[in-house]
Write a structure and sequence with these properties.
mainly alpha, 107 residues, elongated
């Protein structure tokens, strides 16, 4: 029986070569899981208000999870030698920009 679900391979590991190809594939992968905006927007997650509703708690949790997912995907898609260059990045956007600057250079 054929599955109607989308099954994607994990992104290839970036080893320091062919950054342009890796970045396009990574962007597409993140877009597929609705995570690309999390990388580019880099919004601060607002704290929950006093006495939050269940909807507010769920939305807050979803925002945090998206950030963690995007960061995990990128961190796990680079070789250890590359990871050491992004390990100190506080945000996912900073991680992406650091890789871009290091391997693509400035435009």
């Amino acid at each position: 029986m054929a599955s109607s679900g989308l099954s994607l391979n994990t992104p290839q590991t970036f080893t320091g070569e062919n950054y342009q190809i890796w970045s396009v594939k990574m962007k597409s992968y993140l877009e597929t899981y609705d995570l690309w905006e999390v990388v580019m927007e880099d919004k601060l997650i607002q704290p929950l208000p006093a006495n939050p509703t269940l909807a507010q708690i769920k939305a807050h949790s979803d925002e945090k999870i998206k950030k963690y997912k995007a960061k995990t995907i990128i961190q796990n898609s680079v070789a250890d030698s590359i990871f050491s260059k992004i390990i100190a990045c506080e945000t996912i956007k900073k991680t992406w920009e650091t890789l871009k600057q290091e391997y693509q250079g400035s435009e």
